[in-house]
Amino acid sequence: MVPSVAMAGGLISAALFIGISGYHWIAGFDWIDSLLEASMILGGMGPINPLTTTGAKLFASGYALFSGLVFIAVMGITLAPITHLMLHKFHLDEKDMPG
After folding, report:
1. Is the distance from CB of 33 to CB of 49 less than 8 angstroms?
2. pLDDT single digits (tens) 43-86
3. 3-state secondary structure of 1
4. Of 48, 51, 9, 13, nearest to 32 (Cα)?
């Protein structure tokens, strides 16, 4: 379970870094506002500060879609070991599957 949580944490950190960098360099926010904005989008809460430029709006749109995919990936990475253990607990092997 520890490697999965570490991998999920790394993915979240990378996604947060992308968001912070984008909001800082594209939207022109200072670093702390960039952190807040990226954290809120990545966490699914929504934007905080108004975006004034077209580039900032396009980045925010792409980052919001990217954040949804990151959420799905993190859940898959985190739940994979638990699902694997459950399959072993119920003795479900490939030979037991239909087909």
Report:
1. yes
2. 999 899 999 999 999 999 999 999 999 999 999 999 999 988 88
3. coil
4. 48
* pLDDT tens readout for residues 20-38: 999 999 999 999 999 999 9
Structural domain count, the chain: 1
User: Residue 81 sits in a domain of what CATH number?
Assistant: 1.10.287
Q: Give the global pTM.
A: 0.81
* Rounded alpha-carbon distances, angstroms, from residue 68 to 26, 61, 71, 76, 86: 20, 11, 5, 13, 27
Q: How many residues does the chain have?
A: 99
Query: Which residue stretches of the chain are H helix?
Result: 2-25, 31-42, 54-89
DSSP sequence for 16-37: HHHHHHHHHHTS---HHHHHHH
3-state secondary structure of 50: coil
Tell me which residue range forms the domain holding 18.
Answer: 2-96
